[in-house]
């Protein structure tokens, strides 16, 4: 066991500070005795401490990739994350190495890459299609096996991810089984109308959310355009607008009502369900709506019942309870004379973020697609058969379950914190001890006694007390910085010697949590975060992730599995270290802001192909530039550039006037400076790892290399006037 004998090598006594050399009453530096207490082991820790040989399969178990990632993500033999685009039907040669995608996208154009800057969102339309087909197949199987006498046709709630290509893909992939869209605002309704013009004519267009006259007029116009539109009443007073505007526009509407259920789940995502939920009508209000429609001779227009138990429904027991209650309301509406056709069970189909398959967590669900579908079909069939009511068409708004898996956020660690304490020697430790004040030396005596007795918890207590006492003395001015640094090193050594794990490191990542993972900051939502390569190596350290923003909340210090740190590999300054956040395809992009003026990531669309690397990049979009995010806050980058350009010309001209006759060409310098300024507006706000520090005419101005600038800037023509 190493001796407790060390000191900062460079700790020389500063002038004006008293040292009590040669105090024989102090115990000499001692060695620790006894055996350090065994650390508390967790499943993760036991894997990390498993045999000296490491393998990709051990990394897969450590990060629980098979638990939360199946059937779409795994670790290949190279130690990289592999994408299985067709789920369980993916053949070995169809797997896509995620690291190869990142390299293809981020490598400079000069070597065959796309020159895009990280962070990066990788979209996988093949996974999206597989999710849609799997959901449809699960309901088809449940319907067939239970003898259900109607069909299932879902809708995608576009609020989950409004990206044009995501919505268009869903409409195209879902067209064979009449998959539709759900909108909750006027812009969402416009995009849904446009996309469904190319979809199945029987696909539903469900209009949810609070509505005014414009919203309802637009929905009625969609009906005129032969789109299968249903206006769902969220508030009782919306009925007045529907009746008045439908008469004015000569459109026979199809109407739905959203019912407030008594069924409610207690998790975070259940806050919009139950009688006190934000949306929907009570049974009393529904009865008044039925009466009003009957009086207007429009009761036949009421054809859909909509409910929402809550997102991330944890168990099929709760699901069946809520759907059974909804089926009772549906049957009552049929009894009252409504021409009911569709039971829309809303969202709630959850995904397993942490792989625990638990029904007692907001991060997990205790079922799969098959169990979910079977529970819905059985609950509705049981109620309708008992009431002798025709089985309704089943609809769900399963956005999270459809889009979460198809999108991966890739970001890079740019640096990592290391121990700041200086190394110590035996001789220096005696010097450090003798320099302590009397009360601090008392703490040291107690610490030494605890060491001899093997009381490691007590030892840590006195070490911390010694450290705090020295901090107090430093604030009073009675000790110097050298001694303060020495006590840090001393306490760190104490921890190492008694068997404490290495302090958790901070990995600085090229990312904004507020922009790309806003749900972590806002509601504490956890997502699987994993290194996408080097998984054939044992992770040697544990760390948290700190983003680029000037905000103390800009960090990730909670991870799936209840962990407060993440197993990571040693940061190699000369290499790249990529991490991926998975299952984040729903909500994160729409919710992200521009805190510190960091914009969104670059985005690529990657499909499986028969090429040498099993993939092709079918679309690549650079992330918003500095100019783009400045425009969001009402700034005008072109005018800002002109202001800076004139300022530069003024000062460069001043330098030329003050020159002692040198023949340097300041005109070239001005042109290069203008070009450099333009590039700063074009580049993304994030750090550029491949930045080329090329001086312009020895003037000390630097700009990024051509590939990075071109990829971030988009069309350079709009800035052509910027380059002299």
Automatic annotation (TrEMBL):
<dbReference type="Pfam" id="PF02784">
    <property type="entry name" value="Orn_Arg_deC_N"/>
</dbReference>
<dbReference type="InterPro" id="IPR002985">
    <property type="entry name" value="Arg_decrbxlase"/>
</dbReference>
<dbReference type="InterPro" id="IPR009006">
    <property type="entry name" value="Ala_racemase/Decarboxylase_C"/>
</dbReference>
<keyword id="KW-0663">Pyridoxal phosphate</keyword>
<dbReference type="InterPro" id="IPR000183">
    <property type="entry name" value="Orn/DAP/Arg_de-COase"/>
</dbReference>
<feature type="active site" description="Proton donor">
    <location>
        <position position="550"/>
    </location>
</feature>
<dbReference type="InterPro" id="IPR022657">
    <property type="entry name" value="De-COase2_CS"/>
</dbReference>
<keyword id="KW-0460">Magnesium</keyword>
<dbReference type="GO" id="GO:0009409">
    <property type="term" value="P:response to cold"/>
</dbReference>
<dbReference type="InterPro" id="IPR029066">
    <property type="entry name" value="PLP-binding_barrel"/>
</dbReference>
<dbReference type="InterPro" id="IPR022653">
    <property type="entry name" value="De-COase2_pyr-phos_BS"/>
</dbReference>
<dbReference type="GO" id="GO:0009446">
    <property type="term" value="P:putrescine biosynthetic process"/>
</dbReference>
<comment type="similarity">
    <text>Belongs to the Orn/Lys/Arg decarboxylase class-II family. SpeA subfamily.</text>
</comment>
<dbReference type="GO" id="GO:0008295">
    <property type="term" value="P:spermidine biosynthetic process"/>
</dbReference>
<keyword id="KW-0661">Putrescine biosynthesis</keyword>
<keyword id="KW-0210">Decarboxylase</keyword>
<dbReference type="GO" id="GO:0008792">
    <property type="term" value="F:arginine decarboxylase activity"/>
</dbReference>
<feature type="modified residue" description="N6-(pyridoxal phosphate)lysine">
    <location>
        <position position="159"/>
    </location>
</feature>
<keyword id="KW-0745">Spermidine biosynthesis</keyword>
<keyword id="KW-0456">Lyase</keyword>
<dbReference type="InterPro" id="IPR022644">
    <property type="entry name" value="De-COase2_N"/>
</dbReference>
<dbReference type="GO" id="GO:0006527">
    <property type="term" value="P:L-arginine catabolic process"/>
</dbReference>
<comment type="pathway">
    <text>Amine and polyamine biosynthesis; agmatine biosynthesis; agmatine from L-arginine: step 1/1.</text>
</comment>
<protein>
    <recommendedName>
        <fullName>Arginine decarboxylase</fullName>
        <ecNumber>4.1.1.19</ecNumber>
    </recommendedName>
</protein>
């Amino acid at each position: 066991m190493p001796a407790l004998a060390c000191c900062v090598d460079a700790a020389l006594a500063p002038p004006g500070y008293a040292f009590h050399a040669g105090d024989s009453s102090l115990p000499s530096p001692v060695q620790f005795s006894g055996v350090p207490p065994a650390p508390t082991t967790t499943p993760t820790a036991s894997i990390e401490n498993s045999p000296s040989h490491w393998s990709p399969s051990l990394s897969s178990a450590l990060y629980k990739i098979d638990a939360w990632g199946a059937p779409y993500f795994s670790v290949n033999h190279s130690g990289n994350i592999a994408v299985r685009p067709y789920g369980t039907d993916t053949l070995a040669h169809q797997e896509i190495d995620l690291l190869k995608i990142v390299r293809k996208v981020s490598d400079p154009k000069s070597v065959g890459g796309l020159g895009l800057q990280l962070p990066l969102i990788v979209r996988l339309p093949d996974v999206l299609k597989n999710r849609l087909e799997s959901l449809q197949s699960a309901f088809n199987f449940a319907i067939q096996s239970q003898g259900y006498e109607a069909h299932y046709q879902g809708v995608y709630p576009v609020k989950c991810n409004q990206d044009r290509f995501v919505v268009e893909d869903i409409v195209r992939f879902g067209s064979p089984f009449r998959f539709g869209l759900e909108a909750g605002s006027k812009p969402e309704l416009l995009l849904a109308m446009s996309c469904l013009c190319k979809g199945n004519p029987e696909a539903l267009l469900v209009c949810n959310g609070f509505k005014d006259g414009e919203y309802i007029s637009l929905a009625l116009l969609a009906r005129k355009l032969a789109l299968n539109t249903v206006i769902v009443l969220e508030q009782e007073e919306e009925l007045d607008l529907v009746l008045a505007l439908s008469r004015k526009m000569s459109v026979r509407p199809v109407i739905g009502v959203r019912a407030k259920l008594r069924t409610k789940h207690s998790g975070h995502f259940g806050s919009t369900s139950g009688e006190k939920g934000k949306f929907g009508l009570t049974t009393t209000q529904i009865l008044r709506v039925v009466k009003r429609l009957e009086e207007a001779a429009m009761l036949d227009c009421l054809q859909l019942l909509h409910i929402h138990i809550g997102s991330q429904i944890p168990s099929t027991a709760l699901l069946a309870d809520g759907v059974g209650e909804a089926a009772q309301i549906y049957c009552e509406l049929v009894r009252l004379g409504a021409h009911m056709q569709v039971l829309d069970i809303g969202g709630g189909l959850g995904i397993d973020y942490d792989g625990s398959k638990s029904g007692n967590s907001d991060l997990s669900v205790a079922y799969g697609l098959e169990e979910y579908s079977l529970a819905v079909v059985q609950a509705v069939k049981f109620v309708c058969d008992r009431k002798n009511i025709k089985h309704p068409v089943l609809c769900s708004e399963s956005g999270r379950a459809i889009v979460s898996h198809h999108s991966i956020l890739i970001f890079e660690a740019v640096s990592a914190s290391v121990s700041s304490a200086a190394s110590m020697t035996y001789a220096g430790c005696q010097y450090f001890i003798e320099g302590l004040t009397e009360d601090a030396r008392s703490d040291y005596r107690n610490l030494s006694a605890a060491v001899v007795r093997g009381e490691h918890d007590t030892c840590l207590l006195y070490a911390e007390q010694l450290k705090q006492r020295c901090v107090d003395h430093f604030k009073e001015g009675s000790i110097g910085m050298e001694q303060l640094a020495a006590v840090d090193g001393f306490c760190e050594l104490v921890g190492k010697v008694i068997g404490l794990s290495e302090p958790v490191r901070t990995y600085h990542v090229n990312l904004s949590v507020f922009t790309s993972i806003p749900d972590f900051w806002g509601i504490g939502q956890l997502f699987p975060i994993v290194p996408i390569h080097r998984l054939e190596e044992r992770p040697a350290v544990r760390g948290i992730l700190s983003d680029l923003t000037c905000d103390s909340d800009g960090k990730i210090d909670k991870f799936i599995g209840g962990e407060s740190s993440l197993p990571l590999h040693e940061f190699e300054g000369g290499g790249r270290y990529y991490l991926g956040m998975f299952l984040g395809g729903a909500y994160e992009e729409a919710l992200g802001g521009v805190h510190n003026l960091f914009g969104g990531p670059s985005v690529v669309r990657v499909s499986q192909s028969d090429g040498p690397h099993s993939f092709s990049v079918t679309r690549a979009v650079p992330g918003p530039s500095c100019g783009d995010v400045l425009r969001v806050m009402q700034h005008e980058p072109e005018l800002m550039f002109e202001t800076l350009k004139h300022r530069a010309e003024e000062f460069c001209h001043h330098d030329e006037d003050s020159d002692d006759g040198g023949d340097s060409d300041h005109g070239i310098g001005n042109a290069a400076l203008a070009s450099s300024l333009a590039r700063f507006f074009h580049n993304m706000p994030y750090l550029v790892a491949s930045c080329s520090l090329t001086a312009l005419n020895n003037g000390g101005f630097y700009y990024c290399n051509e590939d990075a600038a071109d990829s971030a800037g988009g069309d350079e023509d709009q800035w052509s006037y910027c380059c002299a």
